[in-house]
Automatic annotation (TrEMBL):
Entry similarity comment: Belongs to the short-chain dehydrogenases/reductases (SDR) family.
Pfam families attached to this UniProt entry: adh_short
Keyword Oxidoreductase: yes
InterPro entries: KR_dom (IPR057326), NAD(P)-bd_dom_sf (IPR036291), Sc_DH/Rdtase_CS (IPR020904), SDR_fam (IPR002347)
Domain called Ketoreductase: residue spans: 29-211
Gene3D superfamilies for the chain: NAD(P)-binding Rossmann-like Domain
GO cellular component: membrane
Top-rank taxon: Bacteria
Protein name from the UniProt record: Short-chain dehydrogenase/reductase SDR
GO terms, molecular function: oxidoreductase activity
Organism: Truepera radiovictrix (strain DSM 17093 / CIP 108686 / LMG 22925 / RQ-24)
Length: 332
């Protein structure tokens, strides 16, 4: 019996090794990450850097980019190109892709990760909020994809679109975010079907609430302190949210396999399944959740950045995991 078990173990190990070899390594590959200077984008950059990838990081802040690049060079010896740009500006995105190819001679992976979050009741959201979300979550990935495609075709290129559970199940008090992420999911799935024959694999990623420290930079409307509190706690508590490092590891592995979709965390998979099988129940649950969230309030139309909003619970002991993540992931 021991001989049989040993043989089975060796066979399983050999199969895993063959699969890993078929999947390939990122060593020497060029990976362009939008929103790559902090949060989940920086966590992904670290994972790719550990495997020897060459990195192009695109973000709006030069200072944040330089901090991220300095860390990646020192900790991992990575070759890093910084690209100050706004993903919502097509000319800037096209220039960033061209600079990446000029610097490294190729492009193998595009990760559309840049994101913004506006928290608050729909009553306080105006068209500018929806336009900003669409510029970042839909037009930005589309611009980057159009610019990158000529360099991805014929070399087994990868496109990874970081959407959200909010792009599969609409969440109250996150209307611009959910609407734009739904649009990104549709774009990503459509591109996957049409680009498959060109050898370009497209992965749609729908993360669950992830502890990257990003809550510190969300935009808040309505009853600012209360809105920030519910969002920060949801984004921080371990039984509700998942580790940013784990999310990054899963995304890199899905990229390696060219997986069509990745829904992160059991909570996320359960939510997507419930929406598909029991839409009426989910609609009622979301309406109930909305009733528990803060009501609109006078002065709520003003948008404030989370770290400028006074709140007794954010930051606090309850958000400690997110605070540590913010310090690690360049979010402060």
């Amino acid at each position: 019996m021991k001989t049989v078990l040993g043989a089975l173990s060796l066979a399983a190990g050999a199969l895993s090794l063959r699969r890993a070899r078929r999947s390939g390594s990122f060593r020497g590959k060029v990976v362009l990450i939008t929103g790559g200077s902090r949060g989940l984008g920086l966590l992904l950059a670290r994972r790719f850097a550990r495997e020897g990838a060459r990195l192009a990081l695109l973000a709006r802040s030069e200072a944040t980019l330089e901090r991220a690049a300095t860390e990646l060079r020192r900790a991992h010896g990575a070759a890093v190109l910084t690209l100050p740009a706004d993903v919502g500006e097509r000319a800037q995105v096209e220039r960033a892709v061209a600079e990446t190819v000029r610097a490294f001679g190729r492009l193998d992976v595009l990760v559309n990760n840049a994101g913004i979050i506006q928290v608050g009741p729909y009553a306080h959201m105006d068209t500018a909020d929806f336009e900003a979300a669409m510029r970042t979550h839909f037009w930005g990935p589309l611009y980057a994809t159009l610019a990158a495609l000529p360099h991805l075709r014929g070399r087994g290129g990868r496109i990874v679109n970081i959407a959200s559970i909010g792009g599969k199940v609409a969440v109250p008090h996150l209307a611009p975010y959910s609407a734009s992420k739904f649009a990104l999911v549709g774009l990503s799935d459509a591109l996957r079907a049409e680009l498959a024959r060109e050898g370009v694999r497209v992965t749609t990623v729908c993360p669950w609430l992830t502890r990257t420290g990003s809550y510190r930079n969300v935009s808040v409307k309505g009853q600012h302190a209360l809105e920030l509190t519910w969002f920060a706690l949801s984004d921080s508590l371990p039984l509700v949210s998942m580790s940013g490092e784990r999310a990054a590891r899963c995304i890199v592995e899905a990229t390696r396999r060219g997986a069509p979709r990745l829904v992160l965390a059991p909570h996320g998979r359960a939510a997507v399944a419930a929406e598909a099988l029991f839409p009426g129940f989910v609609a009622a649950a979301m309406a109930t959740a909305n009733g528990l969230l803060p009501d609109p309030a006078p002065g709520g139309d003003e948008a404030r950045v989370a770290h400028e909003v006074p709140s007794r619970l954010a930051p606090s002991l309850l958000t400690r995991l997110s605070e540590r993540a913010a310090a690690r992931n360049n979010e402060l």
